[in-house]
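Build the 3D complex.
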Amino acid sequence: MIPTNQSWGGRFSQPTDEFVKIFGASVFFDKILAPYDIAGSIAHATMLYEVGILTDEEKSQIIKGLNTILAEIKADKFNWSIDLEDVHMNIEARLVEMIGNAGKKLHTGRSRNDQVATDIRLYLREQIDAISSEIKRLQIALLDLAETETNTILPGFTHLQAAQPVSFAHHMMAYFEMLSRDAERLVDCRKRMNSMPLGSAALAGTTYPINRSRTATLLGFENSCNNSLDGVSDRDFAIEFLSVASIIMMHLSRFSEELILWSSAQFDFIELPDSFCTGSSIMPQKKNPDVPELVRGKTGRVYGNLTSMLTIMKSQPLAYNKDNQEDKEPLFDTVDTLKACLRVFGDMVPTIRTKRDNMYNAAKKGYTTATDLADYLVKKGLAFRDAHEVVGKSVAYGIQEKKDLSELSLEELQKFNADIESDVFDILSLEGSLCARDHLGGTAPKQVIQAIKTARKALK
Ligand code: ARG
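Done.
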């Protein structure tokens, strides 16, 4: 037997090929799991002591050793070795080096398979909490902005053509709603994730009289995975998280797209501060909305990570396969990307300066109160289809005369329908149009103010 320093070297007669060592190692990226790995090991050792597998002395040595290792890692004094492949074996080897025999007993009743599955759940659970806080921060920023803009009118669009006037606050609140659903999805995903794989061991469970519910309680898991094969091989929770992350990024990309459009000279609805934009090295006049553009671009990266994970899991036979080691980088990258995008949006939203006059004029130009005129005629007794026809003709006339509907005289309007009276001008104004949509979910300032209030309460 050729001696190897690997913990599984007993049945091997050849050392690992040098490049295969590098190829197979995950320590470069999985070392960020160290705090969760150590927390899992401390809980495992505590349980092993309680069921009589470790002595009090052994348990204390292990816990003390693990805490020292955690301090070494935090102080960047830990010597990571690729010979030891991954975070789990690096920590265990250091423990044995420090405390000797007791360290070798830590892995009793456990495998790296249930260990790593536990570590990533602990990691992701904590990250979900951080992401949820970032979402809430962005939601508060949206509420604050909306509150100052309940009377700011811009054209609402369908097909990117001016459709009907809405308030800027109403528009911001649409994003608030999307983020509320995202936050709920995260809560739901966290709940399903919060189940402990430890005890599944390699795949079939363990012969030791372990107490899984005790370990689960120590680690804050709601329960333990019901099936050991599933416990070690399930990555649904990661796929679910990546799906939620993709939906959040999709929402941020829509918001980004609007900010990019709105800050262009063609729309000129908002201004982003210099501190969130960059210039061009060749065109001195340029001020580019890099932040929303980058967020829009990073959406592709997160979708890619979801696709990676789905494909890594596709067709994998039960239970653990080395393929699963590939789950980490897409997951870590998504967490980092998502946190950064939410954070930068939370910073940027309060800095958005609205150009109220420009938005107002754009809403006026687009015949956005045409539906209001049709509704007015229906209330006078016309069938909606006939009213539609009358208004269509009025709009065509307005375009020809280069006048908004509200700028036509009563006589001009009456040419299209004799029942039109002077009260028509109340509803042809942008303000009138907004105020008329006075029901739950409508854009009337009164309703939007109420929506903001309700949303603020719900956030607390
Ligand atoms: N580094 C491995 C991973 O991330 C840990 C589990 C290794 N298990 C095994 N049977 N080789 O998946």
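The longest helix spans residues 112-147.
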